[in-house]
Amino acid sequence: MFKKILIANRGEIACRVIKTARRMGVSTVAVYSEADADARHVRLADEAVLIGPAAARDSYLVAERILQVARQTGAEAIHPGYGFLSENEYFAEACAQAGITFIGPPASAIRAMGLKSASKALMEKAGVPLTPGYHGADQDPVLLAQEAQRIGYPVLIKASAGGGGKGMRRVDTAADFEAALGSCKREARNAFGDDDVLIEKYILKPRHIEFQVFGDTQGNCVYLFERDCSVQRRHQKVLEEAPAPGMTPERRAAMGRAAVEAAKAVAYVGAGTVEFIVNQDGSFYFMEMNTRLQVEHPVTEMVTGLDLVEWQLRIASGEPLPLTQSQLQIDGHAIEARIYAEDPDKGFLPSTGRLVRLVPPAQSDHVRVDTGVEQGDEITPHYDPMIAKLIVHGADRRQALSRMRQALSQYRIAGVANNVDFLTRLVTVPSFADADLDTGLIEREQALLFPEEPPVPAEVWQLVTLAEMLREQRLADACARSAADRHSPWRALDGWRLNGRSTRTLTWRVGELAQAMTVEVSGAGYQLGMDGAQVPAQGTIDADDELHARLGERRIKATVVAVGDRRQLFFAGRSWALRLADRLPVGHTGDEVESGLRAPMPGKVIALVAPVGVPVDKGMPLLVLEAMKMEHTITAPRQGVVKAFRYAPGDQVPDGAELLDFEGAP
Ligand code: ADP
Q: Is 389's C-beta closer than 6 angstroms to any atom of ligand 1?
């Protein structure tokens, strides 16, 4: 076994690899960018070396620099994690040349599977079933359009070099083909530096089922069963589970055999995943092979009881596979949810900022949290906005699901927008609970997932107001204690509390809603008034923001985190983002830019879509921005005309930058 390995990655996966290495007595070297100087993976590793500025192409993607660090620190092997250099054949080759073990497959296997089109040709030869489509080298747009016609709409255009759900466009009619091809190629060029595409028949109501495979240097290969990753948003996985609901032993064996065939066809070594797209009747087609550890590998670990990183290290150091196919077993059911800093109500726009509060549910044999951040850390625009992966295990799917619901309800995140409430709704929708799965589930369940905001319960306004009063009181008490001066104004504030007759009003906002609350000091607590009704309230709030409240006869526990004028209230299994409105600047300045026309985050302008001076309808695309490796389209907030664009394609824009001058129709 290696004595020391380098981890060429960051975030949760770097932390995940360090954990196993430590357990196996292998020391770890982390690498980090300037933006990650205080990151969790740097804190956890035995040593850490700075490799460059924040931008991944200047740090985590610089192969030579990483190899240099490996040599300097005496690391014998490099674990690439996922993303970054993990599927880069040149990096795998460079490691081999430098005499450093690449913990992954040989460069030849990465190359063979690297391009979706080439891998399809190879799989066709190996007899693995393929989705009907075109994966030829000729990229003439006219030919591609003809091929789409031949395959029959709807079709899916995929970047051949694509991954992570990027560079894919569904096209329903021939009229939309050209525009979709252009935008797909543009995204592919930006994200992968290669704009070749392939076209596939768009399978309706498909499931995504993938098989975990492992090969060793002795030529053995096994499958560690399947994961169902059908619950996706814009072709990106949101929930993953193992085993796949409804899978029969016969079909599992057939798909497992096909997966092993696929791996053997490229002389695979290490951990890999063979992805299939599956029709509702169970027929399956090869989609692609990912030649690395997957984000969702923990669900496989939970049901097999194995540590896949340990397997990776053993195989890379030359050991044979630890178990044979017949020794492998599935125990129970596991589900993973990806917790992201993103705003589901704003089209899942990534959110950046400090994690003012980050308290995951308690971990146990059934609940696992893999994360690269801790409370106080920052989600920056430089990398993927993942906060954590929450993985639960149960004796069966039902038990796993209820554990997932409970764990989500215990998550406390404040400071950045996040998808915890969305995930809570998602694991509760009947179709997911009944395992009626396909990749369109999220889209189909819009009504349940994005309900018309129900009225905010009265308790929300009351609890946040009570928390505010208790906090002020605590501050006043602390100041009074420390103020030697008897005439200190803090004592006066303390006095206000004793003077029960004065009434204050606090105005809160949730989205567009505003609510005024009156507060009167009364006995040991307060009288809270809203819309004419009064409720007596008292309680305590501790330094961890835990509120123990008494509202009338009810005792309620909640958490209220304060950030500036914002309050995040966690209560009854969900959270509310409130704003203390009376501290907001009042009135409209008239020349304010509509927020929709500002850059939602730092990014790069990639296309000016609307013609200047020509009337456009509400919702028409005006400009395309690339941020966090995704395209965001800025659309017309209402009918009007673009007077001028303030940036040109290729320009970097800061967060909040005014992108264009727009004049609404009178
Ligand atoms: P990536 O490498 O970007 O993850 P994949 O080829 O693995 O891309 O596809 C990602 C997802 O897109 C799949 O899980 C599936 O939901 C959807 N998808 C892919 N191919 C098809 C298809 N032919 N028809 C319908 N959906 C598809």
A: no
Q: Give the per-residue pLDDT at 633.
A: 81
**Arithmetic mean of pLDDT, 267-284:** 95
Number of domains in the chain: 5
The CATH number covering residue 275 comes to 3.30.470.20
Residue 394 inside a domain? The answer is: yes
Q: Which atom of ligand 1 is nearest to the CA of 159?
A: 3
Distance CA 510, CA 512 (A): 6
In this predicted structure, the answer to whether residue 583 has a pLDDT above a threshold of 80 is no
In this structure, are 314 and 397 located in the same domain? yes
Is the pLDDT confidence value at 485 over 70?
no
Q: Is residue 26 in contact with ligand 1, taking CB distance under 6 Å? A: no
- Verify that 169 and 291 share a domain, yes or no: no
Quick check: CB of 208 below 6 Å from ligand 1? yes
Rounded average pLDDT over 16-29: 98
Active-site residue set: 292
**Confidence (pTM):** 0.84
262 and 388 assigned to the same domain: yes
Residue 72: strand, helix, or coil: helix
- Measured from the Cα of 116, ligand 1's closest atom is 6
Both structure tokens of 574: 């969900």
Residue 500 banded pLDDT, cuts 50, 70, 90? very low
Distance 255 CA to ligand 1 centre (A): 17
Could you list the beta-strand ranges (E) of 341-492. Answer: 342-343, 349-350, 353-354, 357-359, 367-371, 378-379, 386-394, 412-414
Q: Which domain holds residue 652?
A: 591-664
For the Cβ of 53 lying below 6 angstroms from any atom of ligand 1, the answer is no
Q: Considering only CA atoms, give the Rg of the chain.
A: 27
So what's the pLDDT on residue 607? Answer: 85
Please choose from 87, 123, 157, 168 the residue to mutate so as to test ligand 1's pocket, defined by most ligand atoms within 8 A of CB: 168
Q: Which atom of ligand 1 lies at the shortest distance from residue 165's CA?
A: 3
Type of residue numbered 2: F
Handedness of CA 578, 582, 587, 591 (dihedral sign): negative
User: Is the model's pLDDT at 490 over the cut of 70?
Assistant: no
